[in-house]
Amino acid sequence: MRNEWRAKIFAAAGGGASTAADVAVLALLVESGARIAPSAFAGSICGALVSFVVNKYVAFRDRSPVRAGQLFAFGLVAVVTALIMALAMQLIAVDLHVPYLLAKSICAAVVFFVWSYPAQKRLVFRVRKAQPCLPSLLTST
Q: Which among 5, 21, 80, 101 has the fewest CB atoms less than 10 Å away?
């Protein structure tokens, strides 16, 4: 249970770093005249790249080499996260007229706890159970 909380705390801290990248791209694009939903999608993808590095090496302590399957799972989670974020931002910021940075804060927290943390934990950074050290010949009776 202690490792679960540690992973959540570091994943959330990494989320802070990835959110900084995400919000910087979102604000830059929106303030340059781009529409909110596509800007939210682009920001989410940039933030996802920061998130991958922090989650792999810090939150989930994954020291294994980056594998094609892991990159595919990460890409899938990142794209789904970006799509959910774009839809949520369209609803909250555009349709409900909530200021886009406040909407981003609300959407990011909900998407993190409901989708991206559980998906990354289960699909991208799975912790494999340790195998027994003794060969099966020594443990059979």
A: 5
39 neighbors 26 (Cβ within 8 angstroms)? yes
Residue 138 lies in a domain: no
Residue 117 lies in a domain: yes
Q: Cα 23–25–26 angle (5° rounding)?
A: 60
pLDDT in tens, 27-72: 999 999 999 999 999 998 999 888 888 888 888 888 888 889 988 9
User: In the chain, how many domains are there?
Assistant: 1
Distance (Å, rounded) from C-alpha 97 to C-alpha 25? 20
Exposed / middle / buried, residue 89 (Cβ in 10 Å: 0-12, 13-18, 19+): buried
Place 100 in a pLDDT band, splitting at 50, 70 and 90: very high
- Please state the separation of Cα 89 from the chain's center in Å: 17
31 in any annotated domain: yes
Judge whether 118 lies within some domain. Answer: yes
Judged against a pLDDT cut of 80, whether residue 115 lies above it is answered with: yes
**CA-CA distance, 35 to 104, in Å (whole number)?**
14
